[in-house]
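1st attempt posting a full record on here, be nice pls
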Amino acid sequence: MKIQMLVPCLLGLEKPIADELKMLGAENVMSENGRVLFSGDANMLARANINSRYAERIQVIVGSFKAHTFDQLFEGTKALPWEMWIGKTDAFPVKGYSLNSDLFSVSDCQSIIKKAVVERLKLKYKIPWFDETGALYQIQFSIMKNQVTLAIDTSGAGLHKRGYRPVSNLAPIKETLAAALCDFSYLRHYHTLYDPMCGSGTILVEGALKAKNIAPGIHRQFTAENWQQIPEKIWFDERSRAKELVKTDIDFHAFGSDIDEKALDIARQNAKRAGVENLITFEKKDIKDFAPTTEKGTLIVNPPYGERLADIETAREIYRIMGKVFERKQGWSYSIITPDEDFEQLFGKNADKRRKLYNGMIRCTLYMYFK
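the predicted structure (as tokens):
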């Protein structure tokens, strides 16, 4: 059975997600603002959940239609084949959002969609009510410019929750964004990765997982594993496939440093839980003392912003220090993510490339130096 799916994502990550899905074997991959659409079978659904480094979650599209009124929303929802997914005892809560649309009350949209799904299932199953004690089918709606998309979430907890980071330091970078920074920096399995303000080590761990080609979701569970439509064997086969693709013969190592010993302890624990502790060396060191020990290196750093940690002047002084200690030479690249629009002036050099990204709700730029 061909399944239409979508990936809601952080703005700026559409391309790496689309490229990743194509490599995984997805069909009809199409990028839009803040989401990527694709299709595939049940194996593809499981594979995307287990393997995606950059996606926030995988959703099954039930249908899409225009709605300017609540009547149109009700009828459009009721017309969709919900019985293909939701059984007589399954739970189907509703949540979502509306942007630039006539229907702007999220709570009203929520209750109308719920009522329409119930009415549809009543007709199909010939029963008056639903106890919703079975498997979870979380309905997700989005209404953008009066275009309604109704989907069911397959992931459960967000895909950035790999399982290796139960505790983190203040203002951690999301795992999906950290992985994307490694992708944008063209990190390879034979590179040396540096993060001289590593905090809880997320960038380094994601870099090591990428270098070894360890599927980020290989050790966690997904909501759709409880669905009757997807046999248990599919999940077993896809995890086995992912394990077979792990690289063992790599020449990768990462170096992380920070001034916070507690953060470094957390980083070491995270690396161990992720199974990459042998690929990362941590040490306590101030950014002003950064002195790499290798001839070549890929450096990726998420420094304090002033909005996240420290104050703005402290953050700006750090940018000036980085401009002095990050020596531009052949074989080296530097990627720094920050919302500070004066970063290049403070750093003392114009970036070779810039990318607009969001770190949580903060609009940032990734400044890249490689020439």
